[in-house]
Design brief:
Layout: E1 6-9, H1 11-15, H2 20-29, H3 35-50, H4 56-67, H5 71-80, H6 87-90, H7 93-98, E2 103-110, H8 111-119, E3 128-131, E4 133-135, E5 141-144, H9 155-163, E6 169-173, H10 176-183, E7 189-193, H11 200-203, E8 208-210, H12 213-219
Parallel strand pairs: 1-2, 1-6, 2-3, 6-7, 7-8
Antiparallel strand pairs: 4-5
Helix pairs in contact: 2-3, 2-4, 2-5, 3-4, 5-8, 9-10
């Protein structure tokens, strides 16, 4: 395999071991009477979206409607994401810092939640792409920016096209929308990341399955 000129990495269930929106749901809903049932519903919607069973934009809309979060909730959970960074990424902090010019994080998650933990790894803010929450005057989340390409299923490909990355471009992620980068022809190779979650249908269409970030690094050393 050829060494990458650029590396596109997913965030939820890849860089971190969990789904940030699910964690936001848990934080906001635990006071509600039927919170376990609602959290289960949100996790099921997340899984259906990641496996390509349902439309990504619809899944975002459904989940945000169920969560009922505020700006303060988002800030609190964002700080907590440092505690769930995937172990193999933690072990390779130096690699990410050293290669920060060629590493981009593109996620269907929300940018303001991604930035705090990625900053600790020396990732440039301008190299972090995610969705945007929309708040009302009381700082309650009422929706998301539908004009952001990442709110749609093939949004990652649109971001890569916008970046005009030339040469060998690799994508690493756990979800179907990561595979769509390869299918669209915007990246050279797609690596299915399974350290946190194994999705059979995603692995089946990948160039290689990774059980850790080290496996990716070792391919080129």
């Amino acid at each position: 395999m050829i060494k990458a000129d650029y590396i596109i990495i997913d965030f939820d269930s890849t860089f971190i071991s969990r789904e940030s929106l699910d964690m936001l749901a848990e934080s906001c809903l635990f006071k509600q009477k039927n919170h376990l049932e609602t959290i289960e519903k949100i996790e099921k919607i997340t899984e259906q979206a990641m496996s390509g069973e349902i439309n990504f934009k619809d899944s975002l809309h459904q989940r945000i409607k169920l969560i009922k979060a505020t700006k303060d909730d988002v800030s609190k959970v964002s700080k907590g994401l440092n505690d769930v960074v995937t172990k193999s990424f933690l072990r390779n902090k130096k690699f990410i810092k050293k290669n920060n010019e060629k590493i981009f994080f593109i996620s269907g998650g929300f940018r303001e939640m991604l930035i705090p933990s990625l900053k600790n790894f020396g990732v440039h803010e301008k190299h972090v792409f995610g969705n945007d929450f929309i708040y009302n005057n009381d700082n309650e989340i009422i929706g998301f920016n539908h004009n952001n390409p990442l709110s749609s299923e093939n949004g990652k490909a649109k971001i890569v096209e916008m970046l005009s990355l030339e040469g060998e471009v690799h994508a690493i992620g756990d979800g179907f929308n990561d595979y769509l980068l390869k299918k669209s022809g915007k990246v050279s190779r797609f690596f299915a990341f399974t350290e946190n979650v194994y999705r059979k249908e995603v692995c089946a269409v990948s160039d290689k399955v990774l059980t850790s970030f080290e496996e990716y690094i070792n391919i080129f050393n």
